[in-house]
Design a protein that fits this description.
With about 140 residues, the protein is mainly α. The chain is about 60% helix and about 10% strand. It contains four helices and two strands. β1 and β2 form a beta hairpin. α1 runs antiparallel to α2. The chain is globular, with a radius of gyration of 22 Å.
Length: about 140
Amino acid sequence: MMPLVLVVQVVLPLAAILWVVLWPAGNLAGLMLQVAGTGAFLFALARVAQWALPVWWLPWVYGAVWLAGILIRVPRHGLSGMAVRPGGVTGWCLLALGLGLLALGGWFGGRAMAGASRRPCRSSTSPTPSDRAAILWVMAGPTP
């Protein structure tokens, strides 16, 4: 189990960041989907995974490295001379991969953020026999 956790929480994010920084797409649509898909994937992984084995601040480092890589690499790569759409099969495959990462990261990131909010619930206190403390009863069922 530990190797799987390390692969998901260390190898996959580093591979996604390296993919964006070292091998950016050759067209504008592919590059935008590549950058957005990798960012959504990193965000979802930071929200969904339990960061106990790798340190808790590692998702913040991934986000900083991703942002720094984009801010350094994209202006150097130049956006003005890029084609808007991919021209070959490889370009379309990279565009589809970026779109898939964006969909996957958007779905899991949205689900994680929806689960992070607290639902309203009713609560009441009940006196204990010692009258020094109270028991808090909370019902977290469906609310009308």
